[in-house]
Specification:
The chain has 280 residues and is of the alpha+beta class. It is built from ten helices and eleven strands.
Length: 280
């Protein structure tokens, strides 16, 4: 697939890492996605996409227009159509709050059809993009729409979460939560409450996800992998804990994950390739 992406200008860059467009035939239709420190908006301008949770009690869903997706603390799966034309907005974990009334708690480990809050915006983008608009032009349209939807007044506590979240992001989750609260001048309980309100998870859980993300994107399957060194660099100092969390987040042991990556090598072109892996 062709990937075209752009980092938005201020003030959107406080909330969004990038906006991107995927077009073409996917090399792997079924993908397994581990927890990553981000929330998403997907606008699908092509065929329907099927999503399902690793929690077997949750029914799969087929979405045609688009969906919001909050921070996930477990893996999920999605299946591309034969031909993809998709726009993705890669929000920071706290970044969706100023753009939609859907709460972060309601989006944790969930996807919500985009028409729950954004139907008019989707219709405008679809009408302007049509079937032939170049990817770069489509991304500019989406950025304009996001700018028009940005709330003038940030929700209560969002500045606190943004500041503390930026520290977690820069440190890859290595800053202790107690120190994070102390630096922010608030109690641990207050910080946890604000994080849950604006990201759907506690800062401790977010730190775990940042730590895992640092490890998983460091794996170079084309060369020998020293798991002990990678784990220690990412902040895992207990090998048993590392192995359990790796299996929990990916569904594989490190050895099996590496074998999968070597069996289905990819050339990462953008954020959609950092973390997701071909499904079984």
């Amino acid at each position: 697939m062709e990937y075209v992406g752009r980092a938005p200008a201020a003030p959107l860059d406080r909330f969004i890492d990038d906006i991107y467009c995927l077009t073409g035939r996917p090399s792997h239709r079924l993908m397994r996605v581990p927890p990553m420190p981000s929330a998403h908006l997907f606008l699908h301008l092509g065929g329907p996409v099927r999503l399902w949770d690793s929690e077997r009690s949750v029914a799969p869903e087929v979405l045609t227009d688009g969906w919001f997706m909050g921070v996930w603390t477990r893996r999920f799966y999605f299946e591309y159509p034969n031909w993809v034309r998709l726009v993705g907005v890669h929000f920071k974990p706290w970044g969706m709050a100023p753009f939609t009334s859907v709460s972060a708690a309601d989006l944790r480990n969930r996807w919500v059809p985009v028409d729950a809050a954004w139907q008019r915006a989707v219709n405008r983008i679809r009408d302007r993009a049509g079937d032939v608009a170049p990817a770069a032009a489509t991304l500019r349209m989406v950025e304009e729409e996001l700018r028009s939807l940005l709330a003038d007044t940030p929700p209560r506590g969002l500045d606190l979460v943004q500041h503390a979240g930026a520290v977690l992001e820069a440190s890859h989750g290595a800053v202790p939560v107690g120190l994070l609260a102390e630096r922010a001048g608030v109690s641990g309980n207050h910080l946890a409450g604000m994080f849950k309100a604006h990201t759907g998870v506690t800062p401790k859980r977010m730190a775990r996800i940042y730590r895992f993300a640092r490890l998983i994107v460091s794996v170079d399957a084309l060369h020998p992998v020293d798991w002990s060194e990678l784990a220690q660099t990412a902040g895992y100092f207990d090998h048993a804990h590392f192995s359990r969390e790796f299996k929990e987040f990916t569904g594989y042991t490190p050895t099996d994950y590496l074998a999968l990556r070597r069996r289905f090598p990819v050339e990462p072109q953008g954020p959609q390739d950092l973390g997701p892996m071909p499904g079984d």
